[in-house]
Amino acid sequence: MKLLGPEEMVLVPPRCYCIVKNPVKRDDKGDVSVDSRGQARLSYGEEEVRMAGQPFPLYPGEELIQLPTPLTIVPSQAALRLSAIRDFDDKVAGDEWLFTGPATYTPRVEVRVLGTVLATIVRPGTALRLRARQALRDAAGRERQAGEEWLMRAAGAYLPGVHEALVEVVLPMVLTPRLAIHLRARRTFVDALGRQRRAGEEWLFTSEDCETHIQDVHEEVVNASLDIVTLARNQYCTVRNPWDDEGRPQMGRLDLRRGERAFFLKPGEELVGGRILDVVVLGPDEALLLRATQPFTDAGDVARTPGDRWTVVGPCEYVPPVEVEVVKRYRAIPLDETEGIYVRNIKTGAVEMVIGRTYLLGPDEELWEKQLSPEVEDLLAMPHNDTKGVKVADMARAGGGRDKTRVVTYRTPHNSALQVYDYRQKSSRVVWGPGLVMLAPDEQFTILSLSGGKPKKQNQIHALSLSLGPDFMTDVVVVETSDHARLQIQLSYNWKFDIDSHSRNMEDAAKIFQVPDFIGDACKAIASRVRGAVAAASFDDFHKNSAEIIRVAVFGRDADGHIKDAFHFPSNKLVITNIDIQSVEPVDQRTRDALSYSVQQAIEITTKSQEASARHDAERKAQEAVGVLERQKLKDEIEAEQTRRALLELQVRRQLQAACLPAAALGAHTAVQIATVFIITAGT
Predict the structure, then answer these.
(1) CA-to-CA distance for 651 and 678, rounded, in angstroms?
(2) How much is the pLDDT for 341?
(3) Are 584 and 489 in contact (CB under 8 A)?
(4) Backbone φ, ψ for residue 270 (5° rounding)
(5) Other CB atoms closer than 10 Å to residue 239's CB: what's the count?
(6) In angstroms, rounded to a whole number, what is the distance separating the alpha carbons of residues 349 and 359?
(7) What is the separation, in whole angstroms, between the first and last Cα of the chain?
(8) Which residues are bridge partners to 583 per DSSP?
(9) Alpha carbon distance 631, 380 (integer Å)
(10) Confidence band for 306, pLDDT divided at 50, 70 and 90
(11) What percentage of the chain carries pLDDT values higher than 90?
(12) Strand partners, 82
């Protein structure tokens, strides 16, 4: 046996408590129950709360599991959430309840404190969103089912019940004159304004209904900041699915609204096109093409049926009704005297040409595009198109776009002609240059496809206008002499059309366009004559008289045997006025080399002869110049001696006169002697 202790007694101060585990059992009088050995009987596994009082010892087996602890003071607007862990009194295990303050909570072993619940201050204009954990009766006495949510709107402190959960504090949404709230009902309920709302119903809250709005638990916010639609005086819009005066949506209908006004789009309403439109302001030269989509009567009391087309001409302001579709807005087209457009009537299909005035299309008219062949388009697009035409290789590089609704114009160059064919009338007309051609709707240009290159090849040059000349063309002809020498001759022909510039008539116009390729036809005819004439001559004869042979072959001789001046083509009035032989080269290389050598030898001989003659002339002129120089030198010496003699005579006379003045005093005899001396001296 072992003696333990002594142990201090447990002292619980006032307003405190402690918990003892395995407390002793007591009888009805409150005394400790002991067994036959005098040991205190214990309630194993139990706990006992002991309050303030006399100090007490811990019996063997008892255990102090919680030291003396102050009692819990529950303030006002707060509560303890309690739960029963065993049955006692009127409570059963699992029951929960609140111990509200202000009070002091005395703990019990049958009760567990789950936590502290504080009251939430509900400010004016706010609310608490609560959820029921189980079926209950709320503070207003309404039955709530488990999971149901509701709002607590009363201002002040609110302490949620034991089976109520605070979901959130709902803040108000502020409404302004320019903002609205779009709501949708999750279920049928009565809203804050006392209106019955059905499940799925949508509506708006505006500042006219209330200044602030607290979202109800049965409301879903579709748009918390719906902007107001503001229309100025010169604006309008079309609303699809508008609401009527009774608040019912008119699905599929349209409503035209014009400023000045401001409104919110009701649920389901939408702006057609999603934007606000400006009132159409038409100027004096503008118009609107309109088409009716529904039957209605317009502002002028004119009944319109679907499909009707009409125009509104400015100046004016116009707002198209919902029954009207604006097809297009267009301006009057100003046209100069040299400008025009093609206009087509959509009812009859007739196309006309409008030239030289400002034109505004009617409701049954439209601009018509005139199509041209790609060749004509390329020729019109060439920046330097003239009577010489355009090479086919260059046409592929021609660029530029053309307004196909404009009348096709072409400025015919000076001294040229252009043919236009009318497919409807099956006739053609010729325009003489200089002039302006304006194609009618059924007219087309006649394209000239001419030969080109050296030697001439077909379809090398395309042109719209035909030059009347005079001009020239060059061709290369291969001929063969009677002694089988093949030669390549390059010829240049001067040509013109034999047409009187003052009396041009339709007969002349028809003839010049009868031959499509007058260049190729003329070159072939001349080449044929040249080949025949050269074939009858030998190489030496042709080499000496090539110009005469070719001119006679082409022009021929008159009755007097003289060579004619021109070669006429009666079919198209083409005249060849001259032929120039630019070069004659043998086709065979050996013949070409021999001819080149002989020509070089002849040139060298001529050059040497000219050099010798020039050298002889130079020597002769040099000798003549030397003789002339010698004679001139002798003449100059003679003239110098004569001049010197005259000078000496003048000096002697002057000295003689100077000596004669003092000699007058000495006497005549002395003077004669002095003079004699002077003469002798001067002579010396």
Answers:
(1) 11
(2) 95
(3) yes
(4) -150, 150
(5) 20
(6) 19
(7) 200
(8) 490
(9) 81
(10) very high
(11) 36
(12) 97, 113
Here the tokens at position 344 are 């087509």
User: Which residues are paired to 151 by β-bridges?
Assistant: 129
Please tell me the distance from the alpha carbon of residue 270 to that of residue 242, in angstroms, as a whole number.
8
Give backbone dihedrals phi and psi of 668, rounded to 5 degrees, phi first. -70, -35
Q: What is the 3-state secondary structure (H, E, C) of 525-560?
A: HHHHHHHHHHHCCCHHHHHHCHHHHHHHHHHCECCC
Contact 479, 531 (CB under 8 A): yes
Mark 207-236 as b/e (b = at least 16 C-beta within 10 Å).
Answer: eebeeebbbbbbbeeeeeebeebebeeebb
Sheet holding 78-84, edge to edge: 96-100, 78-84, 111-118
> 247's torsion region: left (phi>0), alpha (psi -120 to 50) or beta?
left
pLDDT in tens, 1-16: 556 667 788 899 999 9
Distance CA 412, CA 312 (A): 41
In angstroms, rounded to a whole number, what is the distance separating the alpha carbons of residues 318 and 310? 14
Looking at residue 133, the DSSP 8-state letter turns out to be S
Gap between the Cα atoms of 47 and 106, Å rounded: 15
Q: Which residues of 69-97 are buried (b: 16+ CB within 10 A; e: fewer)?
A: eeebebeebbbbbbbbeeeeeebeeeebb
Residue keyed to tokens 């405190």: 16
Q: Which pLDDT score is estimated for 540?
A: 84
Give Dmax (Cα) for the chain: 226
Distance of CA 216 to the CA centre of its chain: 52
Per-residue pLDDT tens digits for 125-174 = 899 999 999 898 888 888 989 998 888 888 889 988 888 888 999 898 88
Residue that is written with structure tokens 């009132």 in the block? 279
Question: How does the average pLDDT of the chain come out, rounded?
Answer: 87
Output phi, psi for 212, to 5 deg: -130, 155
Q: What order do you get walking across the sheet with 309-313 strand by strand?
A: 309-313, 286-292, 324-331
**Coil, strand, or helix at residue 341?**
strand
Q: What angle do CA 210, 212, 214 make, to 5 degrees?
A: 110
Q: What is the DSSP letter of 34?
A: B
Sheet holding 574-586, edge to edge: 471-480, 486-497, 574-586, 567-569
CA dihedral 117, 122, 128, 134 (to 10 degrees): 40
Residues 6+ apart with CB under 8 A from 582: 474, 490, 491, 492
Structure tokens belonging to residue 353: 């040409």
The pLDDT, as a whole number, for residue 679 is: 44
Q: What's the gap between Cα 164 and its chain centre?
A: 65
Supply 10's token pair: 């447990």
Could you tell me the two tokens for 465? 């206008």
Q: Of 461, 578, 582, 459, whose CA–CA distance to 526 is shortest?
A: 578
* E strand or H helix at 520: helix 518-535
Task: Find how far residue 555's CA is from the centre of its chain.
Answer: 64
Least confident span in 351-365, 395-409, 434-448: 395-409
Which pair of tokens denotes residue 410? 């072409």
Residues paired with residue 345 on neighbouring β-strands, in sequence order: 365
578: its two tokens: 């001259």
Which amino acid is residue 486, in one-letter code? R
pTM for the whole thing? 0.60
DSSP 459-514: EEEEESEEE-S-EEEEEEEEEE-TT--EEEEEEEEEEEE---SSS--HHHHHHHTT
Residue 148 to residue 132: CA distance in whole angstroms? 6
pLDDT attached to residue 391: 66
CA distance 308 to 427: 40
Q: What is the DSSP letter of 515?
A: S
Give every CB contact of residue 29 below 8 A, 6+ residues apart in sequence: none
